[in-house]
Design a protein that fits this description.
With about 90 residues, the chain is of the alpha+beta class. The chain has one helix at about 40-65, and strands at about 10-20, 30-35. The longest helix is centred in the middle third of the chain and has 25 residues, at about 40-65.
Length: about 90
């Protein structure tokens, strides 16, 4: 779980909104607008958002397991040609 924290003395919530798509797999997009006058608070907020994005990317990579189709078929190499006669010449 991720969260964003800001100090009320230097960052202000300007507005927020939400929009939802219809359908069986509808998704909701939440927009949050913040205003800050402190460059350090801005850097902190952007670092928090970047960390959230990295965590989401990592979790998607872990969830994506290789499928059987993508796995290459492994095989043994062909046997070497026999260039000599396998019989012992002294047995004759």
């Amino acid at each position: 779980m991720s969260f964003i924290h800001w100090g009320p003395e230097d960052t202000v919530l300007k507005k927020y909104s939400a929009s939802t798509t219809s359908g069986p797999r509808g998704k909701t997009v939440i927009r949050i607008e913040l205003e800050t006058s402190d460059s350090y608070a801005l850097a902190s907020l952007l670092q928090s958002l970047a960390e959230i994005e990295r965590e989401q990317h990592r979790s998607k990579e872990k969830a994506k397991a290789p499928s059987r189709k993508s796995m290459a078929m492994l095989a043994l190499p062909a046997p070497q040609l026999q260039l000599t006669d396998g019989r012992n010449s002294f047995d004759a």
